[in-house]
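User: Look at the shape:
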Amino acid sequence: MESDPIGLQGGLETYSYAFSDPLGADDSTGLLPDTCLLCIVYAEAGGTSDDCQQAVAAVVFNRMGDSRHFPGQNTPCLVASHRDSRGGLEFNAYGGSRYRHCSTACQTRKERYAADRAFFNSADPFRDNTNNSTYFHDRRIPTPKWISRAIKSGHMVEQRVPGCTSFRFYRIK
């Protein structure tokens, strides 16, 4: 076992490459996304548009890069498993059945296709189609009250993501 061949360019955790299994998998190019990232994108946005999946991946990377607002969230797994002030998971699908199916590869053909699309849409962390958004939620549910208050007070702004009508995205000002 050795550290990620692309070094810190792949992230701060240099042993999380190869789907977080450097003993059992190979990622000599450094192009495979982290297993947590792939499964978050699949669990949260699998079956939605490519733009939505890319946006969910971008939110994860934006949080990883903002240590001021998201201290300690420097890997996709730490972002996904973070609990809000009420003790709930901020990424609702983390640890859920879709996430577990993805991480164990126990999927139907339809699920595997959706996970494959999520893989390709999370593989380019440098394509941020959200304008540095760090929060999102399903458009079918009302905007959480704390986000509405943050928007009203001018601390947060809603971002439109072209091609994604399934989610609402928010950026801290």
The helical segments are 17-20, 35-45, 50-64, 76-80, 97-104, 109-122, 145-152. Confidence is low (pLDDT under 50) at residues 25-29. The two ends are 42 Å apart (CA to CA).
